[in-house]
Specification:
The structure holds 2 protein chains of 2 kinds. In chain A, helix 4 crosses helix 14, helix 5 packs antiparallel against helix 11 and helix 9 packs antiparallel against helix 10. The two termini of chain A are about 15 Å apart. Chain A contains 14 helices and no strands. Chain A is globular, with a radius of gyration of 26 Å. Chain B is built from 16 helices and no strands. In chain B, helix 6 packs across helix 9. Chain B has 2 domains: about 30 residues; about 190 residues, MetI-like fold. By secondary structure, chain B is mainly α. Classes of the chains: A mainly alpha, B mainly alpha.
Chain lengths: ~290, ~300
């Protein structure tokens, strides 16, 4: 019986070959559909626009390269200040997210802690029901946070989904570890920092990834809470660049507008694309091991 | 009983550090999640900024703003758009994700699969405004590469971005582009969890790979598919604020304006806080009812959302 399986594994039948060919083809198309638009945007941003038009728009690998548009953004200052805001909310916001999430998830992971299920329900209920955008806006306004960077940090300082993720991870750790530490005379706080957090590092990194990307992509809350143009984060600035100049679309046909738009897209996406290979392992590791069947 | 209570109190006292730890997180949930729930009472009041949430007088009748919304012409438009866009996304995202999950797990080369995965997951991490920039570079009527191509062939251009016939398909297509790879992860994990002996047995019986997919893989991930479908149905009133907001324009308002964008404009552009809050509250309540009842349904099938 095993022999038959081995034979059919090694010698591919004609239909198997055709099946594989179709699979490769479909996935290759999906691969290109995702990759080429990104490459195109990068290419336009570094190609002189006359060159782009000369080739009818088709430039994937530019022959002549110019960083003129990047230089314009560098000198203009708006992009730099938007970068400043976004980097600040990403770093400080994520740090606050992780601290709050750990401090809440750890006690909630204790099965015999009195009141644990009540507090869990308290967290879960915020996923089920929300007061809505406008009441939240009024709270932020009443706290005096309008036009402050903290309005982009505090309202999303902790997310129920990440608390659940972290709590599940802590629950999967063997109880004996914590008991031993407590018996040795370490308090709960010490146990959290010396035992739980070092063990939870992979899970913490996953949370850093989720929270970090969320902050980097902050858009709606900035529309709501930030009215001062100089305090807008990157995504809102990009929105202004892409949308604002759409009105002059038909009027002017000078080269740089297009190049500038694509450069702004690249500048906003670049940090995500740079860290992407590093964060990728946190959502694929373990999950896809042993994917090959038979 | 007395003894038990004392023991509980003693446990609480002994574990007080754990309770102190929870305070900051619980406080943030209180201020930014629970206080807005209370703030939603302005849906039943004539809210004025001067008088605040407490001081504003009750609306006459209390449901004034709900009635105003349901009687208005935009009510039908906004509800219809929200439901249609959500449903269009619902019926496309899940099949696409399942299809790619199956294709990825079937493809023999691990290196090829990893390469495709890496690129397909990436758009998930990009914001909608970045995706709009990419879409603009592809489809813009004057400069989009696709339109340049269409013009070369047919001599005229297609207005993808601001025509009411293409706007909803555009939302669906960009959503698929951005999320298919990411959505496939959960199904891939489920496929990997299927007992491999089933495939071996089928192979011995001479089953083709398509037959194995149809009779083993898809039934094997059926419960995951049902759960994700229910979860997405539960949030059917969320048609995606960021996506619609960055892509819509006056020409497509009639087919693209959704509850969330309408609430945003009514509240923050027209300062009609009570009306906007009433509509937001209506959406929240329906969403909660849907989620709770769908979870009940899922539980009956032996799977729970939480």
């Amino acid at each position: 019986m095993g022999g038959i399986a081995v034979v059919s594994n090694n010698v591919l039948s004609r239909s198997d070959k055709a099946f594989n060919a179709v699979l490769y083809l479909i996935l290759a198309i999906a691969f290109l559909l995702c990759l080429l638009p990104l490459l195109y945007v990068v290419s336009v941003s570094i190609t002189p626009y006359s060159e782009v038009l000369k080739n009818g728009g088709f430039i994937l690998i530019p022959k002549r390269i110019t960083f003129e548009a990047y230089q314009i953004f560098w000198e203009d200052g708006h992009m730099l200040s938007a970068y400043g805001v976004t980097i600040f909310i990403t770093v400080v916001g994520t740090a606050l997210n992780i601290i709050l999430t750990l401090l809440l998830a750890y006690p909630l992971s204790k099965r015999n802690l009195p009141g644990q299920s009540f507090f869990m329900l308290y967290v879960l209920f915020t996923m089920l029901f929300s007061g809505g955008v406008i009441p939240k806006y009024l709270i932020v306004k009443n706290l005096g946070l309008i036009d402050s960077v903290w309005s982009l940090i505090f309202p999303i300082a902790i997310a129920p989904y990440n608390v659940i993720l972290m709590r599940t991870f802590f629950r999967a750790l063997p109880d004996e570890l914590f008991e031993a530490s407590l018996i040795d005379g370490a308090g709960e706080t010490r146990t959290l920092f010396k035992i739980a957090i070092p063990l939870a590092l992979p899970s913490i990194m996953t949370n850093v990834m989720f929270y970090g990307v969320m902050h980097w992509n902050t858009f709606m809350s900035a529309l709501l809470y930030i009215t001062d143009q100089d305090k807008q984060p990157l995504q809102v600035l990009l929105y202004g660049i892409l949308k604002g100049s759409e009105m002059v679309d038909s009027v002017d046909y000078t080269a740089p507008t297009e190049t500038l738009k694509m450069t702004a897209v690249v500048l906003t996406a670049l940090p995500i694309i740079i860290v992407y290979p590093f964060i990728q392992k946190y959502f694929t590791s373990g999950m896809l091991v042993g994917a090959i069947k038979g | 009983m007395q003894l038990f209570q004392n023991r509980t109190i003693r446990t609480i006292f002994r574990k007080r550090a754990l309770y102190f730890m929870m305070i900051p997180g619980l406080a943030f949930f209180f201020v930014f999640n629970y206080m807005p729930m209370y703030g939603a009472v302005i849906a039943f009041k004539n809210y004025s900024i001067k008088k605040g949430i407490l001081g504003s007088p009750w609306a006459e009748p209390v449901f004034k703003y709900f009635i105003q919304f349901f009687k208005s012409p935009y009510c039908i438009t906004v509800l219809k758009n929200t439901l249609i866009i959500s449903l269009m996304k619902l019926v496309t995202t899940v099949p696409f994700a399942v299809f790619f999950a199956v294709a990825m797990t079937e493809v023999p080369s691990v290196r090829f699969r990893k390469m495709v995965q890496t690129v397909m997951y990436l758009p998930h991490f990009l914001s909608w405004i970045i995706v709009y920039g990419i879409v603009y570079a592809m489809l813009s009527e004057t400069r989009g590469i696709l339109n340049m191509l269409i013009k070369d062939i047919t001599g005229h251009t297609v207005n993808f971005l601001s025509s009411s016939s293409t706007f909803r398909p555009l939302l669906v297509a960009t959503d698929l582009w951005k999320e298919t790879g990411w959505n496939a992860i959960i199904y891939m994990a489920a496929i990997i969890g299927i007992d491999t002996s089933l495939y071996e047995a089928a192979r011995v019986d001479g089953a083709s790979r398509l037959q194995m997919i149809w009779h083993i893989t898809l039934p094997g991930i059926r419960s995951v598919i049902i759960i994700t479908l229910l979860l997405k149905t539960g949030s059917i009133l969320d048609a995606g604020f960021d996506q619609v907001y960055v892509m819509y324009n006056p020409q497509v308002m009639s087919v693209g304006d959704i509850i969330d964008t309408w609430v945003y404009r009514t509240g923050l552009a027209q300062w009609n806080f009570s009306l906007a809050t009433a509509v937001g509250l209506f959406k929240s309540v329906i969403g909660t009812i849907l989620l709770v009842s769908l979870n009940g349904l899922a539980r009956r099938w032996g799977e729970s959302l939480w």
